[in-house]
Design brief:
The complex is a heterotrimer of chains A (about 170), B (about 170) and C (about 160). Chain B is about 30% helix and about 45% strand. Chain B has a 6-stranded mixed beta sheet. Chain B starts with a helix and ends in a 7-residue tail after the last strand. The N and C termini of chain C lie far apart (about 55 Å). Classes of the chains: A alpha+beta (about 170), B alpha+beta (about 170), C alpha+beta (about 160). At the A-B interface, α1, β3, β4, β5 and β6 of A face α1, β3, β4 and β7 of B.
Chain lengths: ~170, ~170, ~160
Protein backbone atom coordinates (compact mmCIF):
# COMPACT_ATOMS: atom_id res chain seq x y z
CA UNK A 1 0.00 0.00 0.00
CA UNK A 2 1.31 3.44 -0.89
CA UNK A 3 2.06 5.89 1.84
CA UNK A 4 -0.05 9.02 2.01
CA UNK A 5 2.67 11.25 0.61
CA UNK A 6 3.14 9.16 -2.54
CA UNK A 7 -0.61 8.91 -3.05
CA UNK A 8 -0.99 12.65 -2.55
CA UNK A 9 1.66 13.28 -5.20
CA UNK A 10 -0.01 10.94 -7.71
CA UNK A 11 -3.44 12.52 -7.17
CA UNK A 12 -1.84 15.94 -7.47
CA UNK A 13 -0.45 14.97 -10.85
CA UNK A 14 -3.92 13.97 -12.13
CA UNK A 15 -5.27 17.29 -10.92
CA UNK A 16 -2.46 19.07 -12.74
CA UNK A 17 -3.34 17.28 -16.01
CA UNK A 18 -6.91 18.55 -15.69
CA UNK A 19 -5.70 22.05 -14.80
CA UNK A 20 -3.41 22.19 -17.86
CA UNK A 21 -6.25 21.06 -20.12
CA UNK A 22 -8.45 23.82 -18.60
CA UNK A 23 -5.69 26.36 -19.29
CA UNK A 24 -5.52 25.44 -22.99
CA UNK A 25 -9.35 25.36 -23.27
CA UNK A 26 -9.42 28.89 -21.81
CA UNK A 27 -6.74 29.96 -24.34
CA UNK A 28 -8.91 28.76 -27.26
CA UNK A 29 -12.15 30.20 -25.80
CA UNK A 30 -10.59 33.62 -25.26
CA UNK A 31 -9.13 33.57 -28.78
CA UNK A 32 -12.50 32.75 -30.36
CA UNK A 33 -14.57 35.14 -28.25
CA UNK A 34 -11.83 37.80 -28.70
CA UNK A 35 -11.51 38.17 -24.91
CA UNK A 36 -7.92 39.29 -25.33
CA UNK A 37 -7.32 40.64 -21.79
CA UNK A 38 -8.41 37.28 -20.39
CA UNK A 39 -6.23 35.54 -22.99
CA UNK A 40 -3.15 37.33 -21.63
CA UNK A 41 -3.76 35.65 -18.25
CA UNK A 42 -2.87 32.31 -19.86
CA UNK A 43 0.74 33.33 -20.51
CA UNK A 44 3.86 33.83 -18.39
CA UNK A 45 5.54 37.24 -18.66
CA UNK A 46 8.43 35.73 -20.63
CA UNK A 47 6.27 33.57 -22.92
CA UNK A 48 7.79 32.57 -26.27
CA UNK A 49 5.83 31.61 -29.38
CA UNK A 50 6.67 29.85 -32.63
CA UNK A 51 3.52 29.88 -34.78
CA UNK A 52 3.40 28.42 -38.32
CA UNK A 53 6.57 26.32 -38.21
CA UNK A 54 8.50 29.20 -36.69
CA UNK A 55 7.46 31.89 -39.19
CA UNK A 56 6.13 33.94 -36.29
CA UNK A 57 8.66 33.75 -33.48
CA UNK A 58 8.00 36.17 -30.65
CA UNK A 59 9.37 36.70 -27.16
CA UNK A 60 7.64 38.17 -24.13
CA UNK A 61 3.97 38.72 -23.35
CA UNK A 62 3.91 42.23 -24.81
CA UNK A 63 5.14 41.11 -28.24
CA UNK A 64 2.94 38.01 -28.24
CA UNK A 65 -0.26 39.88 -27.30
CA UNK A 66 0.50 42.58 -29.87
CA UNK A 67 0.79 39.90 -32.55
CA UNK A 68 -2.38 38.10 -31.50
CA UNK A 69 -4.30 41.36 -31.28
CA UNK A 70 -3.14 42.37 -34.77
CA UNK A 71 -4.42 39.07 -36.12
CA UNK A 72 -7.60 38.63 -34.13
CA UNK A 73 -8.85 42.11 -33.25
CA UNK A 74 -10.78 42.59 -36.50
CA UNK A 75 -14.43 41.70 -36.01
CA UNK A 76 -14.72 40.64 -39.65
CA UNK A 77 -12.22 37.84 -38.99
CA UNK A 78 -13.58 35.08 -36.76
CA UNK A 79 -14.04 31.35 -36.47
CA UNK A 80 -12.99 28.42 -34.37
CA UNK A 81 -9.69 27.18 -33.01
CA UNK A 82 -10.13 23.74 -31.51
CA UNK A 83 -7.50 21.78 -29.62
CA UNK A 84 -7.72 18.03 -29.34
CA UNK A 85 -5.80 14.94 -28.24
CA UNK A 86 -3.78 16.44 -25.38
CA UNK A 87 -0.62 14.47 -24.62
CA UNK A 88 0.64 16.00 -21.38
CA UNK A 89 3.99 14.97 -19.88
CA UNK A 90 5.53 16.28 -16.67
CA UNK A 91 9.20 17.23 -16.49
CA UNK A 92 8.91 18.23 -12.82
CA UNK A 93 6.21 19.10 -10.27
CA UNK A 94 5.96 22.58 -11.75
CA UNK A 95 6.82 22.03 -15.42
CA UNK A 96 5.13 20.10 -18.21
CA UNK A 97 4.91 19.77 -21.98
CA UNK A 98 1.81 19.28 -24.12
CA UNK A 99 1.09 18.19 -27.68
CA UNK A 100 -2.32 19.12 -29.13
CA UNK A 101 -3.90 18.64 -32.54
CA UNK A 102 -5.65 21.79 -33.70
CA UNK A 103 -8.41 22.34 -36.20
CA UNK A 104 -9.00 25.96 -37.14
CA UNK A 105 -11.72 27.20 -39.46
CA UNK A 106 -11.66 30.94 -40.04
CA UNK A 107 -14.02 33.23 -41.96
CA UNK A 108 -13.04 36.68 -43.25
CA UNK A 109 -16.20 38.55 -44.25
CA UNK A 110 -14.22 41.55 -45.51
CA UNK A 111 -12.02 39.52 -47.88
CA UNK A 112 -14.88 37.02 -48.39
CA UNK A 113 -12.48 34.17 -47.73
CA UNK A 114 -12.32 31.01 -45.65
CA UNK A 115 -9.39 29.05 -44.35
CA UNK A 116 -9.03 25.61 -42.86
CA UNK A 117 -5.94 24.62 -40.87
CA UNK A 118 -4.83 21.39 -39.26
CA UNK A 119 -1.77 21.60 -37.06
CA UNK A 120 0.10 20.17 -34.09
CA UNK A 121 0.78 22.46 -31.13
CA UNK A 122 3.86 21.88 -28.98
CA UNK A 123 3.59 23.69 -25.65
CA UNK A 124 5.54 24.14 -22.44
CA UNK A 125 3.75 24.98 -19.18
CA UNK A 126 4.96 26.15 -15.76
CA UNK A 127 3.13 26.32 -12.44
CA UNK A 128 3.46 29.82 -10.99
CA UNK A 129 2.00 30.44 -7.51
CA UNK A 130 -0.19 27.37 -7.85
CA UNK A 131 -1.51 28.30 -11.30
CA UNK A 132 -0.46 26.76 -14.59
CA UNK A 133 0.61 29.14 -17.36
CA UNK A 134 1.82 28.77 -20.95
CA UNK A 135 5.57 29.37 -21.10
CA UNK A 136 6.02 28.57 -24.78
CA UNK A 137 3.70 27.59 -27.59
CA UNK A 138 3.96 26.98 -31.29
CA UNK A 139 2.47 24.87 -34.05
CA UNK A 140 3.45 23.02 -37.22
CA UNK A 141 0.73 22.72 -39.81
CA UNK A 142 -0.41 19.43 -41.32
CA UNK A 143 -2.04 21.60 -43.95
CA UNK A 144 -3.62 24.97 -44.56
CA UNK A 145 -6.03 25.77 -47.35
CA UNK A 146 -8.08 28.81 -48.24
CA UNK A 147 -10.80 29.65 -50.73
CA UNK A 148 -13.14 32.44 -51.80
CA UNK A 149 -16.57 32.12 -50.24
CA UNK A 150 -18.00 33.21 -53.59
CA UNK A 151 -17.02 29.83 -55.03
CA UNK A 152 -20.15 28.55 -53.29
CA UNK A 153 -22.72 31.17 -54.37
CA UNK A 154 -25.37 30.15 -51.86
CA UNK A 155 -23.03 30.21 -48.85
CA UNK A 156 -24.62 32.51 -46.30
CA UNK A 157 -23.84 33.45 -42.73
CA UNK A 158 -26.95 32.93 -40.61
CA UNK A 159 -25.42 33.85 -37.29
CA UNK A 160 -22.37 35.87 -36.34
CA UNK A 161 -21.44 36.80 -32.83
CA UNK A 162 -19.50 39.82 -34.00
CA UNK A 163 -21.92 41.15 -36.64
CA UNK A 164 -23.12 44.16 -34.68
CA UNK A 165 -19.74 45.13 -33.27
CA UNK A 166 -17.89 47.98 -34.95
CA UNK A 167 -15.60 49.52 -32.33
CA UNK A 168 -12.11 48.04 -32.80
CA UNK A 169 -10.71 45.99 -29.91
CA UNK B 1 -6.52 2.64 12.16
CA UNK B 2 -8.25 0.06 10.01
CA UNK B 3 -10.62 2.84 8.88
CA UNK B 4 -7.70 5.04 7.75
CA UNK B 5 -6.12 2.08 5.94
CA UNK B 6 -9.32 1.28 4.09
CA UNK B 7 -9.72 4.95 3.10
CA UNK B 8 -6.18 5.03 1.73
CA UNK B 9 -6.87 1.81 -0.15
CA UNK B 10 -10.05 3.32 -1.63
CA UNK B 11 -8.17 6.48 -2.69
CA UNK B 12 -5.48 4.31 -4.28
CA UNK B 13 -8.11 2.48 -6.30
CA UNK B 14 -9.73 5.74 -7.42
CA UNK B 15 -6.37 7.21 -8.38
CA UNK B 16 -5.34 4.09 -10.30
CA UNK B 17 -8.63 4.16 -12.22
CA UNK B 18 -8.26 7.86 -13.15
CA UNK B 19 -4.63 7.30 -14.14
CA UNK B 20 -5.68 4.40 -16.40
CA UNK B 21 -8.40 6.53 -18.04
CA UNK B 22 -5.91 9.33 -18.76
CA UNK B 23 -3.38 6.82 -20.10
CA UNK B 24 -5.95 5.30 -22.48
CA UNK B 25 -6.97 8.76 -23.75
CA UNK B 26 -3.29 9.54 -24.33
CA UNK B 27 -2.88 6.22 -26.24
CA UNK B 28 -5.72 7.10 -28.64
CA UNK B 29 -4.42 10.67 -28.97
CA UNK B 30 -1.04 9.28 -30.05
CA UNK B 31 -2.79 6.91 -32.48
CA UNK B 32 -4.42 9.87 -34.25
CA UNK B 33 -1.18 11.91 -34.29
CA UNK B 34 0.86 9.02 -35.73
CA UNK B 35 -1.80 8.39 -38.42
CA UNK B 36 -1.81 12.05 -39.51
CA UNK B 37 1.99 12.39 -39.26
CA UNK B 38 2.44 9.10 -41.13
CA UNK B 39 4.65 7.71 -38.34
CA UNK B 40 3.98 4.05 -39.08
CA UNK B 41 6.51 2.40 -36.72
CA UNK B 42 5.23 4.42 -33.77
CA UNK B 43 1.61 3.73 -34.82
CA UNK B 44 2.27 -0.02 -34.82
CA UNK B 45 3.35 0.25 -31.17
CA UNK B 46 -0.18 1.35 -30.25
CA UNK B 47 -1.59 -2.09 -31.14
CA UNK B 48 -1.26 -5.55 -29.61
CA UNK B 49 0.21 -8.17 -31.95
CA UNK B 50 -3.17 -9.88 -32.30
CA UNK B 51 -5.20 -6.66 -32.62
CA UNK B 52 -8.30 -6.58 -34.84
CA UNK B 53 -9.93 -3.72 -36.68
CA UNK B 54 -13.33 -3.17 -38.23
CA UNK B 55 -13.45 0.18 -40.03
CA UNK B 56 -16.60 1.53 -41.71
CA UNK B 57 -19.00 -0.86 -40.01
CA UNK B 58 -16.94 -3.93 -40.97
CA UNK B 59 -16.26 -2.98 -44.59
CA UNK B 60 -12.52 -2.99 -43.80
CA UNK B 61 -11.85 -5.76 -41.28
CA UNK B 62 -8.38 -7.00 -40.44
CA UNK B 63 -6.77 -9.41 -38.01
CA UNK B 64 -3.34 -8.90 -36.58
CA UNK B 65 -1.21 -5.79 -36.27
CA UNK B 66 0.62 -6.38 -39.56
CA UNK B 67 -2.62 -6.59 -41.55
CA UNK B 68 -4.02 -3.44 -39.90
CA UNK B 69 -0.79 -1.52 -40.52
CA UNK B 70 -0.70 -2.68 -44.17
CA UNK B 71 -4.22 -1.30 -44.68
CA UNK B 72 -3.47 2.04 -43.04
CA UNK B 73 -0.20 2.47 -44.93
CA UNK B 74 -1.90 1.53 -48.19
CA UNK B 75 -4.51 4.21 -47.65
CA UNK B 76 -2.43 7.01 -46.17
CA UNK B 77 1.18 6.08 -46.83
CA UNK B 78 1.46 8.39 -49.81
CA UNK B 79 2.29 12.09 -49.56
CA UNK B 80 -0.49 12.78 -52.08
CA UNK B 81 -2.98 12.26 -49.25
CA UNK B 82 -3.22 14.67 -46.30
CA UNK B 83 -5.38 13.55 -43.44
CA UNK B 84 -6.76 14.96 -40.24
CA UNK B 85 -8.42 12.47 -37.89
CA UNK B 86 -9.81 13.91 -34.69
CA UNK B 87 -11.34 11.89 -31.88
CA UNK B 88 -13.65 13.45 -29.37
CA UNK B 89 -15.94 12.60 -26.48
CA UNK B 90 -13.96 9.69 -24.98
CA UNK B 91 -16.26 7.44 -22.91
CA UNK B 92 -13.70 5.13 -21.28
CA UNK B 93 -14.87 2.24 -19.06
CA UNK B 94 -12.32 0.30 -17.02
CA UNK B 95 -13.66 -3.27 -17.10
CA UNK B 96 -10.83 -4.95 -15.14
CA UNK B 97 -7.29 -4.38 -13.89
CA UNK B 98 -5.97 -4.76 -17.44
CA UNK B 99 -9.00 -4.30 -19.68
CA UNK B 100 -11.09 -1.37 -20.82
CA UNK B 101 -13.46 -0.19 -23.52
CA UNK B 102 -13.79 3.19 -25.19
CA UNK B 103 -16.35 5.01 -27.33
CA UNK B 104 -15.11 8.01 -29.36
CA UNK B 105 -16.63 10.44 -31.85
CA UNK B 106 -14.48 10.86 -34.96
CA UNK B 107 -14.30 13.75 -37.39
CA UNK B 108 -12.03 13.19 -40.38
CA UNK B 109 -10.91 15.11 -43.42
CA UNK B 110 -8.79 13.63 -46.20
CA UNK B 111 -7.45 15.73 -49.07
CA UNK B 112 -6.34 13.65 -52.07
CA UNK B 113 -4.11 15.82 -54.19
CA UNK B 114 -3.75 13.23 -56.94
CA UNK B 115 -7.49 12.90 -57.62
CA UNK B 116 -8.17 16.43 -56.35
CA UNK B 117 -10.97 15.48 -53.99
CA UNK B 118 -11.84 16.20 -50.38
CA UNK B 119 -13.45 13.44 -48.34
CA UNK B 120 -14.83 14.27 -44.94
CA UNK B 121 -17.04 12.58 -42.44
CA UNK B 122 -17.92 11.61 -38.92
CA UNK B 123 -18.15 8.26 -37.17
CA UNK B 124 -18.51 6.56 -33.78
CA UNK B 125 -15.52 4.43 -32.69
CA UNK B 126 -15.86 1.46 -30.33
CA UNK B 127 -12.50 0.22 -29.00
CA UNK B 128 -11.15 -2.42 -26.65
CA UNK B 129 -7.87 -1.91 -24.79
CA UNK B 130 -5.57 -4.18 -22.78
CA UNK B 131 -2.76 -3.33 -20.38
CA UNK B 132 0.39 -5.26 -21.32
CA UNK B 133 3.47 -4.90 -19.07
CA UNK B 134 2.02 -1.72 -17.57
CA UNK B 135 1.24 -0.10 -20.95
CA UNK B 136 -2.18 0.24 -22.55
CA UNK B 137 -2.56 -1.01 -26.12
CA UNK B 138 -5.39 -1.18 -28.66
CA UNK B 139 -6.76 -4.73 -28.94
CA UNK B 140 -9.75 -3.92 -31.11
CA UNK B 141 -10.83 -0.80 -32.92
CA UNK B 142 -13.82 -0.27 -35.16
CA UNK B 143 -16.12 2.52 -36.27
CA UNK B 144 -19.50 3.02 -37.82
CA UNK B 145 -19.98 6.05 -40.08
CA UNK B 146 -22.49 8.78 -39.25
CA UNK B 147 -21.75 10.05 -42.75
CA UNK B 148 -18.99 10.42 -45.32
CA UNK B 149 -19.05 12.79 -48.28
CA UNK B 150 -16.72 13.59 -51.14
CA UNK B 151 -16.40 16.45 -53.60
CA UNK B 152 -14.21 17.56 -56.47
CA UNK B 153 -11.92 20.36 -55.31
CA UNK B 154 -11.80 21.87 -58.83
CA UNK B 155 -15.38 23.04 -58.29
CA UNK B 156 -14.09 25.60 -55.82
CA UNK B 157 -11.95 27.54 -58.28
CA UNK B 158 -9.98 29.50 -55.73
CA UNK B 159 -9.35 26.60 -53.34
CA UNK B 160 -5.61 26.49 -52.69
CA UNK B 161 -3.43 24.55 -50.28
CA UNK B 162 -0.97 27.11 -48.99
CA UNK B 163 0.92 24.86 -46.59
CA UNK B 164 1.40 21.14 -46.13
CA UNK B 165 3.50 18.93 -43.91
CA UNK B 166 3.96 16.53 -46.81
CA UNK B 167 5.57 17.62 -50.06
CA UNK B 168 3.91 16.26 -53.19
CA UNK B 169 6.04 13.46 -54.65
CA UNK B 170 7.96 14.26 -57.84
CA UNK B 171 5.83 13.69 -60.94
CA UNK C 1 -9.58 13.05 -6.09
CA UNK C 2 -13.34 12.82 -5.71
CA UNK C 3 -13.60 16.11 -7.66
CA UNK C 4 -11.70 14.61 -10.60
CA UNK C 5 -14.05 11.63 -10.69
CA UNK C 6 -17.09 13.96 -10.69
CA UNK C 7 -15.61 16.12 -13.47
CA UNK C 8 -15.00 13.00 -15.57
CA UNK C 9 -18.57 11.81 -14.92
CA UNK C 10 -19.98 15.16 -16.10
CA UNK C 11 -17.83 15.04 -19.25
CA UNK C 12 -19.16 11.54 -19.87
CA UNK C 13 -22.74 12.82 -19.50
CA UNK C 14 -22.23 15.49 -22.18
CA UNK C 15 -20.43 13.02 -24.47
CA UNK C 16 -23.43 10.68 -24.15
CA UNK C 17 -25.76 13.64 -24.94
CA UNK C 18 -23.91 14.36 -28.22
CA UNK C 19 -23.66 10.69 -29.21
CA UNK C 20 -27.34 9.96 -28.58
CA UNK C 21 -28.29 13.16 -30.45
CA UNK C 22 -26.30 12.19 -33.55
CA UNK C 23 -27.32 8.52 -33.40
CA UNK C 24 -30.96 9.57 -32.88
CA UNK C 25 -31.26 7.47 -29.71
CA UNK C 26 -34.07 9.53 -28.23
CA UNK C 27 -34.84 7.39 -25.15
CA UNK C 28 -31.19 7.36 -24.05
CA UNK C 29 -30.93 11.09 -24.79
CA UNK C 30 -33.94 11.77 -22.56
CA UNK C 31 -32.11 10.10 -19.69
CA UNK C 32 -29.43 12.81 -19.81
CA UNK C 33 -31.90 15.48 -18.65
CA UNK C 34 -33.70 16.17 -15.37
CA UNK C 35 -37.48 16.14 -15.71
CA UNK C 36 -37.68 19.91 -15.23
CA UNK C 37 -34.69 20.69 -17.48
CA UNK C 38 -34.61 23.97 -19.40
CA UNK C 39 -32.89 24.71 -22.72
CA UNK C 40 -31.92 27.90 -24.48
CA UNK C 41 -30.37 27.04 -27.84
CA UNK C 42 -29.04 29.74 -30.20
CA UNK C 43 -29.07 32.50 -27.60
CA UNK C 44 -32.67 31.80 -26.58
CA UNK C 45 -34.16 31.34 -30.07
CA UNK C 46 -35.11 27.77 -29.11
CA UNK C 47 -36.14 27.90 -25.46
CA UNK C 48 -38.00 24.95 -23.91
CA UNK C 49 -39.01 23.83 -20.44
CA UNK C 50 -39.33 20.26 -19.34
CA UNK C 51 -37.68 17.11 -20.63
CA UNK C 52 -40.62 15.99 -22.78
CA UNK C 53 -40.83 19.35 -24.56
CA UNK C 54 -37.06 19.41 -25.16
CA UNK C 55 -37.07 15.86 -26.51
CA UNK C 56 -40.02 16.68 -28.77
CA UNK C 57 -38.06 19.56 -30.30
CA UNK C 58 -34.85 17.58 -30.80
CA UNK C 59 -36.51 14.46 -32.25
CA UNK C 60 -38.62 16.56 -34.64
CA UNK C 61 -35.67 18.70 -35.73
CA UNK C 62 -33.35 15.78 -36.41
CA UNK C 63 -35.48 13.26 -38.35
CA UNK C 64 -33.80 10.72 -40.62
CA UNK C 65 -33.49 13.24 -43.45
CA UNK C 66 -31.03 15.13 -41.24
CA UNK C 67 -27.45 13.91 -40.76
CA UNK C 68 -25.91 15.68 -37.81
CA UNK C 69 -22.49 15.87 -36.20
CA UNK C 70 -22.31 17.70 -32.90
CA UNK C 71 -18.90 17.76 -31.24
CA UNK C 72 -18.24 19.40 -27.89
CA UNK C 73 -14.76 20.46 -26.98
CA UNK C 74 -12.75 22.19 -24.28
CA UNK C 75 -14.90 21.31 -21.25
CA UNK C 76 -14.44 23.79 -18.40
CA UNK C 77 -16.31 22.06 -15.57
CA UNK C 78 -16.70 23.75 -12.18
CA UNK C 79 -18.12 21.92 -9.18
CA UNK C 80 -20.27 24.42 -7.27
CA UNK C 81 -21.42 21.98 -4.55
CA UNK C 82 -21.59 18.28 -3.81
CA UNK C 83 -24.45 17.81 -6.25
CA UNK C 84 -24.21 20.86 -8.50
CA UNK C 85 -21.85 21.97 -11.26
CA UNK C 86 -21.54 24.24 -14.28
CA UNK C 87 -19.82 23.65 -17.59
CA UNK C 88 -18.62 25.64 -20.60
CA UNK C 89 -18.15 23.75 -23.87
CA UNK C 90 -17.08 24.73 -27.38
CA UNK C 91 -19.50 23.26 -29.92
CA UNK C 92 -18.79 22.50 -33.56
CA UNK C 93 -21.75 21.26 -35.55
CA UNK C 94 -22.14 20.08 -39.11
CA UNK C 95 -25.63 19.24 -40.34
CA UNK C 96 -26.64 17.88 -43.75
CA UNK C 97 -30.31 18.37 -44.66
CA UNK C 98 -31.13 15.83 -47.34
CA UNK C 99 -34.64 17.20 -47.89
CA UNK C 100 -33.54 20.78 -48.61
CA UNK C 101 -30.10 19.73 -49.89
CA UNK C 102 -28.18 22.09 -47.63
CA UNK C 103 -25.11 21.92 -45.43
CA UNK C 104 -24.99 23.86 -42.18
CA UNK C 105 -21.79 24.43 -40.25
CA UNK C 106 -21.41 26.34 -37.05
CA UNK C 107 -19.67 26.90 -33.77
CA UNK C 108 -20.98 28.02 -30.41
CA UNK C 109 -20.23 28.16 -26.71
CA UNK C 110 -22.46 26.11 -24.40
CA UNK C 111 -23.12 27.12 -20.80
CA UNK C 112 -24.65 24.25 -18.83
CA UNK C 113 -25.85 23.51 -15.30
CA UNK C 114 -25.76 19.99 -13.92
CA UNK C 115 -27.24 18.30 -10.84
CA UNK C 116 -26.43 14.94 -9.25
CA UNK C 117 -29.58 12.91 -8.53
CA UNK C 118 -29.32 9.49 -6.87
CA UNK C 119 -25.63 9.32 -7.70
CA UNK C 120 -26.04 10.23 -11.38
CA UNK C 121 -25.30 13.57 -13.05
CA UNK C 122 -28.03 15.07 -15.24
CA UNK C 123 -28.39 18.20 -17.36
CA UNK C 124 -30.61 20.74 -15.59
CA UNK C 125 -29.99 23.62 -17.99
CA UNK C 126 -28.26 23.83 -21.33
CA UNK C 127 -27.92 26.77 -23.70
CA UNK C 128 -25.51 28.06 -26.31
CA UNK C 129 -24.60 31.27 -28.05
CA UNK C 130 -23.39 31.06 -31.65
CA UNK C 131 -19.91 32.24 -32.65
CA UNK C 132 -21.12 31.72 -36.21
CA UNK C 133 -23.42 29.58 -38.33
CA UNK C 134 -23.37 29.31 -42.11
CA UNK C 135 -25.49 27.45 -44.57
CA UNK C 136 -25.07 26.59 -48.24
CA UNK C 137 -26.84 24.69 -50.97
CA UNK C 138 -25.13 21.41 -51.69
CA UNK C 139 -26.13 21.86 -55.34
CA UNK C 140 -23.53 24.65 -55.63
CA UNK C 141 -20.91 21.90 -55.54
CA UNK C 142 -22.28 19.51 -58.18
CA UNK C 143 -19.78 16.75 -57.37
CA UNK C 144 -20.61 16.76 -53.66
CA UNK C 145 -22.00 13.36 -52.88
CA UNK C 146 -22.70 11.28 -49.83
CA UNK C 147 -20.68 8.08 -49.77
CA UNK C 148 -22.13 6.65 -46.55
CA UNK C 149 -24.76 7.51 -43.98
CA UNK C 150 -25.91 5.80 -40.82
CA UNK C 151 -29.63 5.94 -41.44
CA UNK C 152 -29.90 4.85 -45.05
CA UNK C 153 -32.06 6.67 -47.56
CA UNK C 154 -34.70 8.86 -45.95
CA UNK C 155 -38.37 8.29 -46.84
CA UNK C 156 -39.50 10.22 -49.88
Amino acid sequence: MANLEELDARIGRLEDIEAIKRLKYKYFRCLDTKALDELAECFTEDVATSYSEGHYTLQGIYAVMKFIKRGMARYEFFGVHQGHHPEIEFTSDIAATGIWEMLAYMIDTKEDKCMLIGAFYHDEYVKVNGEWKIKSTGYNRIFEENWQRGDVPSLELKANRFASLTEPL
Amino acid sequence: MADVESRIKRLEELEARRADIEAIKALKHRYFRYVDCKQWDELAECFTGDARSSYSGGKHSFEGRDAIMAFLKDGLGTNTRISMHQGHHPEIEITGDTTATGVWALQDVVIDRQFNVTIRGAAIYRDEYVKVDGEWKIKFTGYERLYEEMWNRAESQSLTITQSMFAMPEA
Amino acid sequence: MADLAEIEAIKRLKYKYFRCLDCKQWDDLGQCFTEDAVTSYSGGKYAFEGRDTIMGFLAKGLGTHMISMHHGHHPEIELTGETTATGIWALQDYVIDLKHNTTLMGAAFYRDEYVKINGEWKIKYTGYERTFEEISSRADTPSLKLLQQMFGKPEE
